[in-house]
Write a structure and sequence with these properties.
about 130 residues; Alpha-Beta Plaits; two-stranded antiparallel ribbon; 3 helices; binds iron/sulfur cluster
Length: about 130
């Protein structure tokens, strides 16, 4: 991943148009495991804005403290973490017709290396990091 959207989200839609890789789904999308509740970041798509901006654009746009938080890098080191999250329904990883479930071993994503594991494990507010 990635960044993650929490239940603090008020579904205002300020973030989704800002994402350079269309990783954010609204609360009506059938691909959102939290449909009917709040927005969702696809971890298999989010690149933490690496190569696009100096900080995550979604968090810059978000008016709600604690709605966008850090999650683990979408890399092979966290294959089991994302696979388990998918099984639990926390994530809804894309099931590609030919490649299968798009877990990090199939395609990893860029992440902000400057962000420490302590902030990721505690799902700290992204906006507070900048
Ligand atoms: S961090 Fe960047 S790439 Fe990831 S969801 Fe937010 S805007 Fe999109
Ligand atoms: S900008 Fe923040 S509060 Fe608004 S939809 Fe996105 S995550 Fe939710």
């Amino acid at each position: 991943m990635a960044v993650m959207i929490t239940d603090a989200c008020i579904s205002c839609d300020a973030c989704a148009p800002e994402c350079p890789v269309a990783a954010i789904l609204n609360d009506e999308s059938e691909k959102n495991p939290y449909a009917g509740e709040y927005f969702y970041v696809k971890p298999e798509t989010c690149v933490e804005c690496v190569g696009h901006a100096d900080s995550p654009r979604c968090a810059e746009a978000c008016p709600t403290e604690g709605a966008i938080v850090w999650d683990m890098p979408y890399t092979a080191d966290f294959e089991a973490y994302y696979a388990a999250g998918h099984e639990e329904g926390k994530y809804l990883i894309r099931d590609h017709k030919k490649k299968g479930l798009m877990l990090p071993s199939v395609k990893s994503q860029a992440f902000m290396e400057a962000i420490g594991m302590d902030l990721r494990e505690s799902h700290a507010d992204v906006a507070a990091s900048f």
